[in-house]
Amino acid sequence: MKIDRLLSIVILLLNRPLIQAKELADMFEVSVRTIYRDVDSINTAGIPVVTYQGAGGGIGLMEGYRLDRNVLSERELADIFGALQSVSSYVGEGHHLLLEKISSVIPPSKLAAFRSKTTQMIVDISPWGQMGPLEERLSLLKEALEEEVVVTFEYISSEGRVSQRTIEPYTLVLKGQSWYLYGFCTDRRDFRLFKLLRMKALVKEQQHYTRQDLPLKELPWTDGWTEPQNLQAITLRFAPEGRHLAEEYFDSEELHPEDNGGYTLTVRYAENDWLLGFLLSFGPVLEVLAPEHIRRRLGELARDVAAKYAFSLPQPDSPR
After folding, report:
1. How far, in Å, CA of 28 to CA of 91, rounded?
2. Eight-class DSSP state of 159
3. Residues in domain HTH deoR-type (predicted)?
4. In a 3-state reduction of DSSP, which class is residue 163?
5. How far apart are CA 57 and CA 59, in angstroms?
6. What residues does 195 pair with on adjacent strands?
7. Report field, pTM of the whole predicted structure over 0.90
8. pLDDT at position 263
9. Interatomic CA distance for residues 3 and 185, integer angstroms
10. Other CB atoms within 10 A of residue 58 CB
11. Tens digits of per-residue pLDDT, 179-231?
12. Residue 50 forms beta bridges with which residues?
């Protein structure tokens, strides 16, 4: 991601008088052109980076410039460190260099306390097992974002429709447990959100685009669907044999024990296809008690599923 690369470059320049653009490009696995764009971004942020031409030249900070290491407190640095650790668990080795550089800013006498703070809470957002094709898509889209080039792919909508898309990528979004790409669709002439698992034949093209400013308060994954008025109260009952699932997916304080060893609870979710699939995933150990329309819809879906497998169910013996 660009922000941690910019911070890494600044820390490198603080510790080295000059560094070659090619060396930085190789270190961060980007193009020299991208490094010079990063230098412009750092200058814009108020840190004077100078490029020296000729033999023995390179990129360095203006002579006499020093970055106030007290601009961030140790607690703030620990929070940044923890956030980067969680991202590193999903996007590979690229962040480890930055994590080491942040640690190097901490005085040796305070390093033990700093490490204690950074291990008080660990967030690992990577899935169990291997990511497979999803990891390849993430890597390719990160490259397209860095190079500001368009991507093309086939997209399967939630209704099953397949379309060919050409997208100017802007943001990778991890929402819930799913990755999305937010970008400008050249066919629809508008911004769209795409689920990575629904992409096929993803290709990074050579065509460059000019990035626009994003209205951060109006992005589709920050809308009001989680506001109380948009959530549906749902009453659930877990059978005794489903206690372990109830305890794994719901807070223990939400669970109300029943005399038979099961649980009841009331939760609030946005009503959509994900909710129906989530409830069905518990199988026969879960019963939706209310509201009636969700209970009825689940019954319809369960009958449709049962009908698909009816031919393979053993038939009862014929009476003699």
Report:
1. 13
2. T
3. 2-57
4. strand
5. 7
6. 180
7. no
8. 96
9. 25
10. 19
11. 899 999 998 888 998 999 889 999 999 999 998 877 665 677 665 556 666 78
12. 60
